[in-house]
Amino acid sequence: MLKLLVVPYQRCPHHTMSSLSQTKELFRRADAVCFDVDSTVIKEEGIDELAKFCGVGDAVTEMTRKAMGGSMTFKTALTERLSIIRCSREQVNKLITDHPPQLTPGIRELVERLHQCNIKVFLISGGFRCIVEHVATQLSIPLHHVYANRLKFYFNGEYAGFDESQPTAESGGKGRVISMLKEQYGLKTVVMIGDGATDLEACPPASAFIGFGGNVIRPQVKERSLWYVTSFGELLKELEKI
Which sites are catalytic (predicted)? Predict the structure, then answer.
């Protein structure tokens, strides 16, 4: 029987330094920057907030944890969580009015600076479009730069499922969106920023990934990020070098 020797992968400090400076350079000369939304652009996880608002918080939080841990596919986790929540259109609207998503400190200034540098900004989220559009409006990001899941409602406003054809409803969907953006806009350098494994997996096709731990630190993401920041101020400082 053939035995394979598995050698643990270790980054040599020199390799990490050059890769860190490469990542910073790619960020400075990016054509576009794509942000995850939940726990990155906003402080909370939208689906957990919706569940709490609908009185089923604990059951859904547990399932979110499983989804993040990769013990079920993203689509399965989304389907199961939404079938517990079963939110109406009215409940979603009331959530946005009564508990609007809380922007992470520094994101407004960062997006403004990126726009000033003529760098396109996109929001790519496994969360819900109705919530993400509210966030985009606050940040002056055009709504056609938003990619997220769409909730479906019957004419009387009751929950009717979600649009399963959206790329963000699948594992690997964020990468597919980035490939599509590169083609559609002729973008060469695209940087993905986020807190979770699905964001990290979008690179490639993203040219670089920046891990964000300002709201929650996920150890597996931190370990695998060439550049990991805990505040948007660190990214703003880098843009000052342009």
Answer: 36 (nucleophile), 38 (proton donor)
Catalytic, 38? Answer yes
* 201 three-state secondary structure: coil
Instruction: Copy the structure tokens of residue 67.
Output: 């989804």
Task: Say if residues 209 and 191 touch (Cβ distance below 8 Å).
Answer: yes
- Predicted confidence band of residue 69 (pLDDT cuts 50, 70, 90): low
Rounded Cα gap, residues 233 and 225, in angstroms: 18
Given the residues 38, 48, 195, 199, the one annotated as active site: 38
How many Cβ atoms are within 10 Å of 47's Cβ, its own excluded? 25
Exposed, middle or buried by CB within 10 Å (0-12, 13-18, 19+), for 85?
Answer: buried
Q: Match 């990934």 to its residue by tokens.
A: 209
Neighbours of 224 (CB within 10 A): 15
Fold of 20-44+101-240: Rossmann fold (3.40.50)
Q: What is the pTM of this model?
A: 0.85
More confident residue, 111 or 6: 111
DSSP-derived letter for residue 125 is E
Burial of 36 from C-beta contacts in 10 A (0-12 / 13-18 / 19+): buried
